[in-house]
């Protein structure tokens, strides 16, 4: 563990003191900001939620559209190919109402599903806000989804409709396309439309600009999103309207959103990060959500930060690494003076990346941890706390985290175990789509949510992520270690850019794992037997004697998900010749 600290920014942060806030914090204090709040209306106070009528649109888009001081403020700025489209809160409300009108005209009712299969574009956000308005469940899907990925999502959600593009509609099998009531195409031309297909360009604009949000119970589904792939079928995670409380609090404290913030969450809207912090959370705060529709290039990313005066940027270690590899001199060519807060999610923000951003963009990135199932950021480096490099930070006020052993027993500081969160909090998923058995397996009898992540907590309450529990490795004796520990040592070697360590199973007669490492090299280094030997020797000198890496393989790229998560299981499956080596939810 690194002992260095990056000092907190207490004075300018929204949350001034973590220590003073935690003991007195109650979610109800946040709920009070919503129009639905009343002594009998708080979701926590009614066991069946039946008396709570609310809609996230009333508290986000509509609230600001009806505020004379805020209605003209930008709600959404979208840039693609140099073209910029800007929508104020007032304009966003009209779009949302018109799209809600269109969906209603096509027979959509609360509880129906709309699959949105589009690359980033304003229509995703119009559809998202229209679905929320009428209680239709918004189901975003990556436009780069494979035929197979799409098929399992379509089969399991049985949507009333799909919103997509003529090119992408080709990915939907003829059999499924026929079963769906409506396939909406955002653009033409679409030669040979089937009877259930319609090009909707220009149609929402014909609809009335007013559409009262449907008042729903707090646990009414808002969106359904599939988690990153594993060897098992993906999980459809359900999130609800009442999560607005957690979205608002986390955006304010972790992303440090202030009234004049321009927030850029550079995640695809089909990833939970893009859905929550790319749209709903900034809209609840009444600030500008910026969306970049172009694919990543380092120059475009710096240009975006400069041109759109991004003040808060929520990104990933993958993007940071790509920027770092594009060169140290590039950031100095841009005016990044508007940028005041950088946050990261999805994969380990290793100290090398953290310091690089601090040195070259003047803002130290704050790592945040959460998962599709948790709905909101749960553990984070808050601006008011010192950053400990390598740590994912501390649980948000209102959230309790612990490290448990395999029997659910709490482990002392600095022990490796499963990261668990105490239920409930406003963000926690209410269910997995049509899979209650799997949903129940997340919870212990005494009310802890098991994350499946391996972590440890230090004496000061900072958490350190060490990988997924199915990635754990067996060293000598009963010792179990996370692969991340070894990968970090590998990355200290000057030639190594990234590393992944897997176990190929037990070594015959020894009970310890046969460990194999896969590495990519930094620019300027060439793969060679000599370098391989040198790295092995380096590892010997830097790892405990009972941890032995038997093989090191050079790769040009490590397999990762679209959101940049390392897929050790793909390497493992390829190595062992078992299923799972295929590219479920993989980036390329
Ligand atoms: C938001 C999101 C969740 C999994 C999670 C964990 C990994 C997330 C991380 C991190 C290291 C961080 N993860 N944040 N690992 N450091 N700061 O990523 O949701 O796509 O469901 O993934 O991502 O393993 O369990 P999702």
N-to-C terminal Cα separation, in Å? 33 Å
**Number of folding domains?**
2
How much of the residues is beta strand, in percent? 15-25%
Radius of gyration: 24 Å
CATH topology of the largest domain: Rossmann fold
* Shape verdict: globular
Write out the CATH superfamily name of the largest domain: ANL, N-terminal domain
Determine the number of helices (DSSP H or I, runs of at least 4 residues). 18
Mean pLDDT, all residues: 93
**Unreliable sequence segments:** none
Order of adjacent strands in the largest pleated sheet: 2-1-11-10-12-13-14-15-16
Number of strands: 26
Could you say which small molecules are bound to this protein?
A: ligand 6R9
Profile the largest sheet: 9 strands, mixed
Secondary structure class reads alpha/beta
| Proportion of helical residues | 25-40%
* CATH top level assignment of the largest domain: Alpha Beta
- What's the architecture of the largest domain in CATH terms? 3-Layer(aba) Sandwich
Folded structure, characterized:
The chain is of the alpha/beta class. The protein has two domains: 18-36 and 48-399, ANL, N-terminal domain (Rossmann fold, 3-Layer(aba) Sandwich); 474-576, 2-Layer Sandwich (GMP Synthetase, Chain A, domain 3). Helix content is 27%, strand content 22%. The protein is built from 18 helices and 26 strands. The protein has a nine-stranded mixed beta sheet. It has a five-stranded parallel beta sheet with strand order 4-3-5-6-7, with helices on both faces. Helix 6 (122-134) links the parallel strand 3 and strand 4. The longest helix has 17 residues, at 89-105. 49% of the residues are buried. Ligand 6R9 binds next to helix 11, strand 14, strand 20 and strand 21.
């Amino acid at each position: 563990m690194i002992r260095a600290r990056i000092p907190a920014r207490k004075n300018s942060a929204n949350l001034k003191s973590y220590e003073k806030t935690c003991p007195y914090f109650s979610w109800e204090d946040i709920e009070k900001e919503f129009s639905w709040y009343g002594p009998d209306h708080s979701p926590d106070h009614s066991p069946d939620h039946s008396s709570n009528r609310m809609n996230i649109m009333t508290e986000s888009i509509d609230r600001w559209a009806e505020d004379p001081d805020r209605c003209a403020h930008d709600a959404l700025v979208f840039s693609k190919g140099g073209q910029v489209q800007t929508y104020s809160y007032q304009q966003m409300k009209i779009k949302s109402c018109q799209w809600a009108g269109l969906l209603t005209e096509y027979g959509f009712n609360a509880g129906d599903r709309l699959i949105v299969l589009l690359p980033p574009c304003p229509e995703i956000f119009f559809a998202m806000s229209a679905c929320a308005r009428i209680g239709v469940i918004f189901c975003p899907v990556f436009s780069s989804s494979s035929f197979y990925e799409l098929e399992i999502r379509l089969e399991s959600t049985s949507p009333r409709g799909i919103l997509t593009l003529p090119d992408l509609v080709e990915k939907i099998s003829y059999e499924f396309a026929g079963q769906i009531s409506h396939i909406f195409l955002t653009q033409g031309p679409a030669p040979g439309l089937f009877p259930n297909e319609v090009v909707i360009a220009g149609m929402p604009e014909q609809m009335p600009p007013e559409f009262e949000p449907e008042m729903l119970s707090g646990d009414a589904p808002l969106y359904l999103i599939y988690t990153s792939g594993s060897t098992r079928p993906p999980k459809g995670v359900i999130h609800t309207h009442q999560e607005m409380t957690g979205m608002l609090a986390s955006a304010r404290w972790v992303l440090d959103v202030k009234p004049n913030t321009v927030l850029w969450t550079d995640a695809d809207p089909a990833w939970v990060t893009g859905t929550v912090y790319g749209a709903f959370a900034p809209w609840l705060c009444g600030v500008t959500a910026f969306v970049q529709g172009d694919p990543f290039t380092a120059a475009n990313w710096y240009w975006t930060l400069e041109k759109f005066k991004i003040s808060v940027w929520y990104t990933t270690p993958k993007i940071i690494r790509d920027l770092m590899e594009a060169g140290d001199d590039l950031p100095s060519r841009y005016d990044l003076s508007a940028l005041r807060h950088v946050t990261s999610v999805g994969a380990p923000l290793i100290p090398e990346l953290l310091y690089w951003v601090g040195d070259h963009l003047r803002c130290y990135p704050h790592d945040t941890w959460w998962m599709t199932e948790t709905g909101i950021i749960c553990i984070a480096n808050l601006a008011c706390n010192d950053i400990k490099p390598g740590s994912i930070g501390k649980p948000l006020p209102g959230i309790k985290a612990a490290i448990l052993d395999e029997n659910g027993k709490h482990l002392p500081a600095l022990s490796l175990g499963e990261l668990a969160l105490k239920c409930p909090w406003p963000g926690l998923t209410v269910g997995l789509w049509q899979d209650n058995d799997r949903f129940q397996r997340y919870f212990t009898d005494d009310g802890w949510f098991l994350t499946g992540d391996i972590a440890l907590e230090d004496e000061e309450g900072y958490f350190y992520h060490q990988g997924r529990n199915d990635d754990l490795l067996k060293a000598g004796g009963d010792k179990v270690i996370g692969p991340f520990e070894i990968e970090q040592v590998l990355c200290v070697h000057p030639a190594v850019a990234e590393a992944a360590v897997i176990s190929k199973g037990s070594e015959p007669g020894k009970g310890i794992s046969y460990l194999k490492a896969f590495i990519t090299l930094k620019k300027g280094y060439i793969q060679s037997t000599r370098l391989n030997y040198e790295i092995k020797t380096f590892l010997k000198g830097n790892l405990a004697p009972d941890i032995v890496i038997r093989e090191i393989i050079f790769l040009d790229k490590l397999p990762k998900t679209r959101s940049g998560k390392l897929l050790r299981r793909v390497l493992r499956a390829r190595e062992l010749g078992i299923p799972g080596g295929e590219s479920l939810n993989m980036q390329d």
